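The following block was generated as part of the benchmark described in Methods. Ligand: acetyl coenzyme *A.
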Amino acid sequence: MTVQYRSGLRAAITGVHGHVPDYVLSNAELAALVDTSDDWITERTGIRERRILKGEGLGTSHMAAEAVQGLLDKSDTKVEDIDLLICATTTPDMVFPSTANLVCEMVGIRNIGSFDVQAACSGFVYALTIASQFIETGRCRKVVVVGADKMSSIIDYTDRATCVLFGDGAGAVLVEPSSNGYGIVDTLIRSDGSGAPHLHQKAGGSRMPPTAETVAKRLHYVHQEGAAVYKFAVARMAEVGAEIMMRNQLSAATVDWLVPHQANRRIIEATAERMGLPMDRVMMTIQKFGNTTAATIPLSLWDYEPKLKKGDRLVMAAFGGGFTWGGAYLTWAYGANGAMQQRVNEIRVPAE
Ligand code: ACO
């Protein structure tokens, strides 16, 4: 790991990859489990299906490792060249060690710093913010940021108000110094702990350790007061998008893509409207993946990667449990044409 500070470096996303499990949980299947319908879910949330990780002993790390391995292969990056791995997750495999530690072991990355970031649905923006500082200071040259969640592990499939919303998945990005000027320009992260009563998991932590009673009372599942969270989510997502635009002198005409957290299509539409953006410049993956918490933004980047052009201006906006929220402004550092390796070589700063 480089320990010398170098000023003037800009961090850039130089690769993205995702992983979603094979199993597709459709609205029709959910309607057979709880009192809901395809029409209600589609109209109120925009979700048509979501992916669910099945298989004994498979946790969040499985999907995260698949995404990271794919990213390393695709960008022709050697495991020994990675300086830091950050995993954003709310559904770690275990209380400890961190899922980041487990992912490193699974893909063969050793002797580097790795840790988890817990900021619920804002986790990826938080982790990207941290990664960018390590690059900008010259401390690291290659940082992997993976957002991954197995939400099905904490969802009550008898609660129609939450079980229709969430899915499982992982998305990973490689962050490196950019030499072409494109990359992460600005990030902001915010929190308000008074939001905890509206969105949390009651048991399983140190305040209420697991017991037979907590399990019987179904306290290990997501507790969400949907309407209250919706109100905050709409306000904060729109605010953060507008603030990032104002801080960076952006207008609706100069933003190429909004990359919003995917919690509800109506929240995304309200955010886009406040920013003055038409929906054809808004990344939308909620219809096929649902809310995958820390994975929604990197999965959206992965899904839209073929459409992205070098220099495209992207604004990210996220909101989640905590409450937490955050935003980022970046310019996309590579184009869709040509082999991944060519793109990476083009934007990498030569090693000293
Ligand atoms: N099917 C049918 N009816 C339902 C369902 C369902 N799946 N879920 C709720 N309803 C009912 C409710 O029971 C209620 O019925 P009632 O009027 O008889 O009491 C009615 O629909 C309306 O309920 P609302 O909660 O007001 O429904 P709303 O339109 O607000 O949609 C939703 C609910 C989708 C949860 C919405 O509130 C939402 O998206 N909230 C924000 C989610 C979010 O952004 N979370 C943050 C990120 S997640 C994280 O950080 C982990």
